[in-house]
Amino acid sequence: MAGTDPRPYLAEAKYPCGRDELLRAAAAAGAGDDVLGPLGALPASDYADGDGVWDAMCACDGASIHDTAKEAP
Length: 73
Description:
Blueprint: H1 19-28, H2 33-40, H3 50-59, H4 65-68
């Protein structure tokens, strides 16, 4: 599942940009874990625009940030 559409939170991203810039822009715009988690799971490559980010999120079969967290012993 791709999560929530991140494009409304990426208006201030300076494209082309990588995952770190996407996370920075989304966090600054007030995105929640439903956006930040899937963005953080994206491959560390450059994205041309918000549509490219959304396409990558829809295609990403990686686990969300919550699925990959390790439980304390």
